[in-house]
Design goal:
- By secondary structure, this protein is of the alpha/beta class.
- Among the domains are: about 5-80, no CATH class; about 90-95 and about 465-510 and about 515-585, Pyruvate Kinase, Chain: A, domain 1, CATH 3.40.1380; about 190-280, M1 Pyruvate Kinase, Domain 3 (Beta Barrel), CATH 2.40.33.
- It is built from 18 helices and 30 strands.
- The strands form 5 sheets. Strands 9-10-11-21-22-23-24-25 form an 8-stranded parallel β-barrel, surrounded by 8 helices.
- Helix 4 links the parallel strand 10 and strand 11 (about 170).
- The radius of gyration is 25 Å and the shape is globular.
- Bound molecules: adenosine-5'-diphosphate (ADP), phosphoenolpyruvate, potassium ion and magnesium ion (MG).
- The site of potassium ion has 6 residues, from loops.
């Protein structure tokens, strides 16, 4: 027996406000609550029943898996905002302006990820990044409290709602790496050549003695040997182990430098990385599981897993997410940053929804001169297997302190763009650097310039794209996308249009890296956000039907009305509802 209750939202008002107590008691009495908006009725869903007792929680209504109503349940009221849905097209203001002013050819294909930290966590700072082209905001659970991260997520969500952006959120786990603790509250500490520092696994109750570093891994003092080399942050500072005294390890600084709180530690013996017992630590620690629960509850779009060793952990996490996050589909990104992840690369990428070349830790685990070829290998394999790939770490490291990049950094960014990675990522440059917006502008400008050069010179390195589909229907979709992309290049069309509910057809087109931009129309805001990580896709949210003719007419008139396309533009359209390729001029 299902009891249900319907609310009529006040006419024209996009808000439905009810006292919280009323809502709580209503949910006790009625398992199903519906909201009536116009002629349509939508079930109101709350994120979880326990949330009703919290001071703030989310309420939303879902129509065919598509959220049309979202709201916040506060201490004493519930405000439900109705997104006007009929005939609207959601695209951000930056894309819209870019299309209007410069046309299709000038849109940026390479996507940009910014790590959010103290330098960029304010609403206005986040807005500047979004305006500057940030497609994905990354939060690193290695730093900051969950409360801090929650506030950042809230601000990004608000930015999307109020300003039409589709900035996705990526949560990055801490992982079971060995790292230093806080520096007794200091923002950094300088280690000078020849100084003796103590690395200890002891807990110091009353203040940290001078030149002492806490290590988070209990087996540390047992595992290191006198003569080992200790690398902080992949070699930014180096020490040599000189003496072991119980839980304390005395080390002499051999390469001086700045120590930052919670910096990563690796130790080397006879020129190779030591992977004693810490290799046995779980990829996802108990703290990571709590962070993952937090990420699921907050509805993040991507979860990036640090120090992935095999496909098993990815499969495990994916089934965990599937069981818990029924309404949302969180993509799992494997961070390639260890020797094991390179060893098991193909199975890891096949199991994941995407990968990150995490060059920071990777460069601490394999010789630096091997990092570029590893990057190229990961980028290529991801493209072949149709998984988005992010190139991360030290792209513009000097811009943490200086307003212009080095020529070498620009060359590095160019190379990643030339490899046609899906996305580039800023870490410290945007999290705690002096010039976050300038760094983002460098990524943007270099991407645009290299992409243009690439198209002008037709430096087309055709890549063998193997079949990735497992069913016959998948194979058809693939063939359609491969052919449509090829036609788009040969006919020099202005844009590819793809109508896709899950985003799959859009990613298949993106994989072909065509010359023209890909307008991806999708029915849900969450798919729209997720597509924002993929090369060349301009994601729009749009309600559409199974009737392609009417979809196209509707899209043309909406885009024309907003000045984003004009009569005569040549377009190729594909969809995952109708297995066909249509070539047409905008009427
Ligand atoms: N949430 C945060 N709170 C404080 N500092 C942060 C935060 N996120 C990042 N940072 C700072 O930015 C630096 C670069 O970020 P990132 O590369 O993600 O981390 P890590 O250096 O630990 O690999 C960090 O070392 C840290 O100093
Ligand atoms: C991106 C990376 O991971 P993190 O910043 O979490 O260490 C990296 O190691 O390059
Ligand atoms: K991390
Ligand atoms: Mg790392």
């Amino acid at each position: 027996m299902s009891q249900s209750l319907q609310f009529l939202t006040p006419s024209r008002s996009p808000y439905l406000t009810l006292p919280k107590q009323t809502v709580t008691s209503l949910y006790r009495r009625f398992p199903v609550i519906k909201l009536l908006i116009g002629k349509h009725s939508f079930p109101a869903v709350k994120s979880s029943s326990s949330d009703l007792d919290a001071t703030s929680s989310k309420v939303g209504a879902v129509d065919n898996g598509q959220t049309v109503v979202t709201g916040v349940l506060s201490a004493d009221s519930v405000a439900v905002r109705v997104q006007s849905d009929s005939g609207s097209l959601e695209v951000d203001t930056v894309t819209e302006a870019e299309l209007k002013e410069n046309g299709f050819r000038s849109t940026r294909r390479t996507k940009l990820v910014c790590t959010i930290g103290p330098a960029t966590c304010g609403f206005e700072q986040l807005e500047s990044l979004a305006v500057g082209g940030m497609n994905v905001a990354r939060i690193n659970m290695c730093h900051g409290t969950r409360e801090w991260h929650r506030r950042v997520i809230e601000r990004v969500r608000r930015l999307n709602e109020e300003k039409g952006f589709a900035v996705a959120i990526m949560m990055d786990t801490e992982g079971s790496e060995i790292h230093m603790g806080e520096l007794g509250g200091a923002p950094s500490a300088k280690a000078e050549d020849g100084e003796i520092w103590t690395f200890s696994v002891r807990a110091f109750d009353s203040g940290l003695p001078e030149r002492t570093i806490i290590v988070n891994y209990d087996g540390f003092a047992e595992d290191v040997k006198v003569g080992d080399e200790l690398l902080v942050d992949g070699g930014m500072v180096r020490f040599e182990v000189t003496e072991k005294i119980g839980p304390d390890v005395k080390c002499r600084c051999t390469d001086p430098g700045l120590l930052l709180p919670r910096a990563n530690l690796t130790f080397w013996r006879d020129g190779s990385l030591v992977r004693e017992r810490n290799a046995m630590l779980p990829t996802i620690s108990s703290k990571d599981w709590l962070d993952i629960d937090f990420g699921i509850a907050e509805g993040v779009d991507f979860i990036a897993i640090s120090f992935v060793k095999s496909a098993e952990v990815i499969n495990h996490l994916k089934s965990y997410i599937a069981a818990r996050a029924r309404d949302s589909d969180i993509a799992v990104i494997a961070k390639i940053e260890s020797i094991d992840s390179l060893k098991n690369l193909e199975e890891i990428i096949r199991a994941s929804d995407g990968a990150m070349v995490a060059r920071g830790d990777l460069g601490a685990q394999i010789p630096l001169e091997q990092v570029p070829s590893a990057q190229q290998r990961v980028v290529k394999l991801c493209r072949q297997l149709n998984k988005p790939v992010i190139v991360a770490s030290q792209l513009l490291e000097s811009m943490i302190e200086y307003p212009t990049p080095t020529r070498a950094e620009v060359a590095d960014v160019s190379e990643a763009v030339r490899q046609r990675a899906d996305a580039l990522m800023l870490s410290g440059e945007s999290a705690m650097g002096q010039y976050p917006e300038k760094a983002l502008a460098v990524l943007r400008n270099v991407s645009l310039r290299i992409e243009r050069w690439w198209r002008e010179e037709k430096r087309y390195e055709a890549m063998e794209l193997p079949d990735v589909g497992t069913s016959f229907a998948d194979s058809i979709s693939e063939e359609i996308c491969n052919s449509a992309a090829k036609m788009a290049n040969n006919l020099e069309v202005d844009a590819l249009f793809v109508y896709t509910k899950t985003g799959h057809m859009a990613s298949l087109l993106s994989r072909c890296r065509p010359d023209c931009p890909i307008f991806a129309f999708t029915t849900t805001t969450s798919v729209r956000r997720r597509l924002n990580l993929q090369w060349g896709l301009i994601p729009f949210r749009l309600s559409f039907s199974d009737d392609m003719e009417s979809n196209l007419n509707k899209t043309f008139s909406l885009l024309k009305a907003r000045g984003m396309i004009k009569s005569g533009d040549l377009v190729i359209a594909v969809s995952d509802m109708l297995q066909s390729i249509q070539v047409m001029n905008v009427p």
